[in-house]
Input
Amino acid sequence: MIYLDYNATTPVDQRVLDTMLPYFKEKFGNAASKTHSLGWVAEAAVTKAREQVAKVIGATQHEIVFTSGATEAINTAIKGVWETYHDEQKNHIITAATEHKAVLDTCKYLETKGARVTYLPVKPTGLIDLEELKQAITPSTILVSIMYVNNETGVIQPIREIAKMVRDLNRNDCFFMSDATQAVGKIKIDVENDHIDLLCMSGHKFYAPKGVGALYVRRKNPRVNLTALLHGGGHERGLRSGTLNVPCIVALGKACEIAETEMKEDADRIILLRDRLENEIINSFNAGEVIINGSPTNRLYNVSNLSFKTIKGDSLISKLPDIAVSAGSACTSDMPESSHVLNAMGISGEIAFSSVRFSLGKYTTKKDIDTTIAQVREKVR
Output
């Protein structure tokens, strides 16, 4: 199997696995146990992991809350801001039409609770219009949530510019959040310089296990106060009660440490493979028969979302049984409808249904890419 679905999930790095394994048996203590050495060892491991996670995004360890993944982090952030700050005058949330369903569905839920939500449209490139965002922000806005990197197209939003606009226009109890699930561990992030107040991540997108993630919550300038979703023990500064998943938290920390030192080297290698894949496929057919979806320049280095005119994406995928690719987000792959991301970009249903997402990772080889190019050429023809 040639694996080109790294945006769906990644294999666990062997170094990450080796680091976490002792915490299943030899070091199995509960990090909340304060009366014996097994608990102290677990607590120390969690503290180290918190520091590692904080470092990769330019935060402090006291601003990191461990979760089961990005979906929980997103729910905690959006619902937590709503419960803490909304009233009759402050009830407005802004997001983009191309966000992950974890954001969109949470916002739709809050609409049933009285929230007014603006879903910003995007340009054909997948980028939001900053002027439209500027016009949407009002004194009633309490949260703006824009994802860092789109999971289907790889489009990178100008987060620093967006967050600065939010800060300049409405600093009083209006916060900026970013779902950075596809960005953390792949590109350099600095929550201070980027003016981010809340940030969500998931370990399995960058070589840690599934079932662990984190939420960054700014502590000062301004301090963000969230209402907890889970109660019962006061873990994670009262924001996320429940016994900590020490092995996976340790793994997340190690994955962040590895990414901190290796992401640039990985990026330099992967982008050459991505461009080779893309150029060879596009040049194999007549002009306009294969289309790149999303901005060809403002996107993550490992993603290529291509539409093959007159061919349904799932039909092509079914003819590539030895190559793992997808027709969009893994979280919506069982839904028989075209991508909401591509639809929001103004791409017609026919072209949207013909899309295939190739996403590469650090274990992708030139041989993988050359084999994929040859098979795609053959099956499309």
Summary: The mean pLDDT is 95. The chain has two domains: 2-8+262-370, 14-257. The radius of gyration is 21 Å. The longest helix spans residues 246-282.
